[in-house]
Specification:
homodimer, alpha/beta, UDP-N-acetylmuramoyl-L-alanine:D-glutamate ligase, 4-stranded mixed beta sheet, 7 helices, globular, Ketohexokinase (chains A, B), KHK (chains A, B), PfkB_dom (chains A, B), transferase (chains A, B)
Chain lengths: ~325, ~325
């Protein structure tokens, strides 16, 4: 049985992206150059990048039994992401974002319909924990349910040798007060720039130093800050900072943070030390910004192998 | 075997409609009140209304084997429209219109992706003509192919008694020069206000009088002109005009012309004289303008029965 799978939990969304010459005038009737669909949501994007990086990955969440279902199933399959434990929910609508891209101005206008798809509950968390090396949570308004799932994982870990335990991570991205209860429930805590700024922190170092007191013993806070790079701080240890790695021309930053998280999880899963993992994650996120979507990452040399002793590592 | 079916041919489109509080600011990220999908395209809308009016109706066209297919199949089934002869085309994209509705201004902004779905060809026109009482064509850029289909129907009719013949109609809506070749190939020719204006006619009467010379012997030109009502002129006979019938409050005029055409076809199929058919069609189109979409027409008293002698009729 596979025991090294990475499980990502979050909320699924479909992005319907219209590539327009320019942003439309109100009440006009115009043609766009192209429309395309993209599976979205933070944990979904992270799953996609993990799969591209070569990790065995599963997504767990609710999926609406709506017109988008066929597209989503195909897309998960194309991406090589397992969805066997997902809950298909009847009589609800999928969250959808209409995204209007303007070639002229470079703007990205989003019209979001949050749909009526319910969040995954603790009752839905019916998985064989023995299959997973890592479980990652996109912090959701249903954080109280996610806390119960994290408790299940802690209970599962309690009887195991350190090497056999599941590592956990949570992402605090949107400024929702309800997410605060997740901060001391996982081994790695990803803090977004937006979340940090909403809490009064204006640099990545201030952010990790400000939040590290709230995480549990042995846990690490990680914060990526766009073109200012990223840093991480294990509780009681010094902060490690690394610079961003620019792709040259910025093409599309949508999902860059989710890409960073995927690359961090992948490298840490492979046994990388924090500094190597951060450097690798900044490299992958930088590459992503230089391309539309994620699939081009397949053709970039981004393999990551931990060095043999497992205590140090490097990207090659 | 059923012999009284109405067949409608055209191009299929999906409308993704976002009901917004206001038209979005460029580069903003906002929520909308609701998104909904609607099957669109002129002949599709006409089919929908024919089915609601109680006519046995079939749609014939190409359908993309794309993410929208599941929705479309369900929607045709819900609408009671037969699609058994449609051609499902792989590796192409469905025409999609994103429609942004603003509650504040009442505006309707359309961003259309024409997709890569091919038009139906004469080779695809593999139907048992014995099943149909009426065949209606939405004039398409592929008009030359539609001319061949109309010729097949004329050949089929040539050996039949008058009562057993298929009646044909064409709709000239968009100002495309290629549509002109259809005008003398059908029994009824629907001219849109836009098409008429593009040809220099500024009233419904001017339009039917201007176009009637171009139709074939025994054929009739019909023209609806929004709040100015509708008129019809059989070749060599006087023009008949009827006023519009207002629903009181105008809610949604999208597809009002397609509704008018459906009601005309339905009434004429039932043996109505032209004046009764026009009056009935203006009534149904007016009702449609007073509601969102078409489905509310189900709950309106719009039944139409021809009088017994078949030479005159009335809406009741």
């Amino acid at each position: 049985m596979e025991t090294n799978r990475i499980l990502c939990l979050g909320k699924l969304c479909v992005d319907i992206i219209a590539e327009c010459e320019d942003f439309p005038q109100e009440d006009s009737d115009q043609r766009c150059k192209r429309q395309r669909w993209q599976r979205g949501g933070n944990a979904n994007n992270t799953s996609t990048v993990l799969s591209i990086l070569g990790a065995p990955v599963e997504y767990l969440g609710t999926i609406a039994n709506s017109h988008e279902l066929g597209f989503l199933r195909d897309d998960y399959q194309r991406a090589g992401i397992i969805i066997d434990n997902c809950v298909i929910v009847d009589n609800c609508s999928c969250p959808v974002s209409l995204v209007l891209l303007s070639s002229v101005s470079g703007s990205r206008t989003i019209i979001h319909d949050s749909g009526s798809l319910p969040e995954l509950t603790h009752k839905d968390f019916q998985v064989d924990l023995g299959s997973y090396a890592w479980v990652h949570f996109e912090g959701r308004p249903s954080a109280a349910e996610q806390v119960k799932m994290l408790r299940d994982i802690d209970n599962h870990n309690a009887d195991l040798e350190e090497n056999d335990r599941i590592t956990t991570s949570v992402e605090l991205e949107k400024n929702r007060p309800v997410l605060a209860q997740l901060i001391d429930k996982a081994d790695y805590v990803f803090i977004s720039k937006d979340y940090a700024k909403a809490h009064g922190f204006y640099s990545k170092e201030d952010a990790v130093e400000g939040f590290v007191d709230k995480v549990r013993e042995g846990a690490t806070v990680i914060c990526a800050w766009g073109e200012d790079g990223a840093c991480a701080k294990p509780k009681g240890e010094p902060t490690i900072s690394v610079p961003a790695i620019s792709p040259g021309t910025i093409i599309d930053t949508l999902g860059a943070g989710d890409t960073f998280n995927a690359a961090m999880i992948h490298a840490l899963c492979k046994g990388a030390v924090l500094q190597s993992a951060l450097t690798f994650a900044c490299k992958v996120a930088g590459e992503k910004c230089g391309m539309k979507g994620f699939s081009g990452l397949r053709y970039t040399d981004l393999s990551f192998e931990a060095e043999s002793d497992g205590s140090s590592s490097g990207s090659k």
